[in-house]
Amino acid sequence: MDELRKELRSLFERQQAGLREIRGSRETLMSRAVARKDEPLGGRPQVAAGIAAVLIAALVIATFAYVRGRGVFHEGPYSAESSSRVATPVVPATVKPPSIPPRTWILDVDLVDLSTGWVLFTNCVQPMTGSCHYSVESTTDGGRSWSKPVQVGGPYDPSNGDAPRAIHFLNKSDGFVYGGAIAFVTHDGGRTWGRLNIAYVFVSFIAGRDSVAWAATYPCAKGQLCSYEIRSTSDGGRTWSKPYNLPAGLSPVEGVPFGASGLLLATATDLMITLDTGATWRDIRSTCTSAVFTEEIATSDGRELWLLCSDFPTDSGNVRKTLWVEEDAGATWKQRATSQPGGGLDEPGPAADFISLSAGSALYHAARPGVMVSHDDGVNWTTVGPPATLAAVRFCSASDGWALDNQNYVWATVDGGDHWTRTASLQITST
Amino acid sequence: MVHVVNAEAGRSLHERAVAGDEDAFEALVGPLVEPAIRLAYSMLGDRTEAEDAVQEAVTRAWRKLGQLRAGMPVRPWFLAIAVNQCRNIRRTRWFRFVRTSDTFRFDGDVEPGVERIDLARALARLSDSDRQALFLHFYLDLPIEEVGVALGISAAAAKGRIYRACHRLRPDLAEEDL
Fold first, then answer.
1. Arithmetic mean of pLDDT, A316-326
2. Which band of pLDDT confidence, cut at 50, 70 and 90, is reported for residue A51?
3. I need a labelling partner for A242 at 20 to 30 A (CA). Which of A42, A206, A278, B161 fits?
4. If DSSP codes are grouped into helix, strand and coil, which group holds residue A431?
5. Is the per-residue pLDDT at A57 higher than 70?
6. Could you give the C-alpha distances from A231 to A32, A41, A203, A234, A272, in angstroms and in order?
7. Between chains, do A313 and B149 touch, taking CB under 8 Å as contact?
8. What is the rounded distance in angstroms from the CA atom of residue B168 to the CA atom of residue A22?
9. For the ranges A96-105, A117-126, A351-360, which has the lowest average pLDDT?
10. Using the beta-carbon criterion (under 8 Å), do A23 and B34 form an inter-chain contact?
11. Count of A–B CB contacts within 8 Å?
């Protein structure tokens, strides 16, 4: 054991080598954090400027995942009409890695259907001399072949931590590449990219499907107190609505699109919902107690809202989980399950990818094998396969979805998560 | 590595901090900033983001200070906030594990030796939660109980998680060795 302990320490120390001396930043960080104590949580901290670089330290093993149906797979609930059921997930016979150049790192992957996907990668690998570039390759045949790389924006200084990090497509044509302070849009499947035509300084998230998308942005410089802005587009990002200013003190954490025009928004403190593409918003008071540690939200239709509260660990280390469901458009929350004995939910632990597939049904996964599923309004929960710890779960319809486990295997379901089949291991590795 | 303060022992600091004394708050939380940045870096793989996450965690800790119960150790409480902040950052992205995998790339930096390379690869194959538990216990030297608090699980679950992770790295280990 001592030998393993020593070896692990050594490995962790190597991994941490990129930080080198960090004591000098402590005072700065503390003073800035305390100075922000009366500002909204979630605002961009002021740490970054001038401090060390983007240290992407890694071998990237990006796994390609599968999705069925027409929609984009980023967000959970999908309208019934977007579902196209099949009995068995279809898996390409061979999938080869994109032929990206040596010493490049894959940052993000996205697909909109079984065949069509994109990879965002960069040459910004430490030690970096020169400029960082960010590029996209695409496949339309399930990974059998890949396009030539297309550079997106840049070049960037290696110390610029706001460079592109994420890629998200709404459909086969319209997609986004964005980072902490930059966003680009394409309308031709990634062949050409242009700067996103909205005013922003920082980007929180871009979410959506089909032609509808939502952008949560911050319009002011670091340290300057402003309201976050929420915009929507219904034409794939060509034009955007006027921004809706979140009330002071609210910072967006997560957005769950639903239907053709709805968004359920989790802020650092409460919830907000719009049914009309952002024209009007309704505040929803979170019913989590002040002891809440994490909140997970889900909805399939904007009427039935799910809220999973995980309280702060008690002295014994346990975490109380409580599931609330709201079925009357905001009037009352009803407690459906807890993690207490007989309460329905499983053992304590943070939940991830909490998704409502349709009225009365929801699922989530945690840091242990399997998926927890309920089909009776959240009263009873059962653990179903896959028998592996999952990195992500997404659905493209109320029935069809897929999961990625930590061994880079892809699992698919066509019955709302009750049964899962391992379909492939699709590793895309830098060459 | 880090002076452990709990809300009981540091009662005066705690009370003063809750009352708005910034110096007391810094004395309470300041020593935990470095391990928090290291933990955040291990989860996010980017120094800038790690520092942003910890700065946000410090601000949240300031506001949540009233929830820190007497006798509760400050370190895992604060690290738990930092972990949660890192999770919030990661949940805004697709394929969060990609960046986590980034932080465990050792090729080119690994000293010669098949065993070390094998261990690095085995470590990279562990789940995020398993790696976090190992990092907290073996690198930041948190006792099992504090690992549990920081990760939001019981001490028994933390011990089990660390054991299972070690067992995957070295199958011949016995749980009693922990």
1. 77
2. very low
3. A42
4. coil
5. no
6. 29, 20, 11, 10, 14
7. yes
8. 32
9. A96-105
10. yes
11. 244
- Tokens 């941490």 label which residue? A16
Rounded (10°) CA dihedral B127, B132, B135, B140: 180
Q: Order across the sheet with A334-338: list the strands.
A: A292-299, A305-311, A321-326, A334-338
Range with lowest mean pLDDT among A90-94, A368-372, A406-410, B19-23: A90-94
Q: What is the ipTM of this complex?
A: 0.77
For residue A88, give Cα distances in angstroms to A66, A314, A413, A426: 12, 44, 8, 18
Residue labelled with tokens 């073996």: B138
Instruction: Show residues of chain B in contact with A55, CB under 8 Å.
Output: 45-47
The confidence band for A158, taking pLDDT boundaries of 50, 70 and 90, is: low
Q: Helices (DSSP H) in A240-398: which residue ranges? A: none
Q: Is the pLDDT of residue A317 over 60?
A: no
Strands (DSSP E) along A72-133, which ranges?
A: 105-111, 117-122
Q: What is the pLDDT of residue A93?
A: 40
Beta bridge partner(s), residue A305: A299, A326
Q: CB atoms < 10 A from the CB of A96, how many? A: 13
Q: How big is the CA angle at A226 (ends A223 and A232), to the nearest 5 degrees?
A: 125
Q: How many angstroms separate the CA atoms of B22 and B32, rounded?
A: 15
Rounded to a whole number, what is the distance in Å from the CA of B2 to chain A's nearest CA? 13
Better pLDDT: A134 or A140: A134
> What residues of chain B, 152 to 171, have a C-beta less than 8 Å from chain A?
152-155, 157-158, 166, 169-170
> Six-digit token pair at B27?
């004395």
As a whole number of angstroms, the distance between CA A44 and CA A204 comes to 9
Mark A9-20 as b/e (b = at least 16 C-beta within 10 Å): eebbebbbebbe
Handedness of CA A16, B49, A309, A373 (dihedral sign): negative
List b or e across A216-246, with b for residues whose CB sees 16 or more CB atoms inside 10 angstroms: bbbbeebeeebbbbbbbbbebbeebbebbeb
CB contact under 8 A, B58 and A29: yes
Of A1, A350, A391, the CB nearest to B173: A1
B82 min Cα distance to partner chain A (Å): 11
pLDDT band for B173, please (50, 70, 90 cuts).
low
- Determine contact, residues A307/A345, Cβ cutoff 8 Å: no
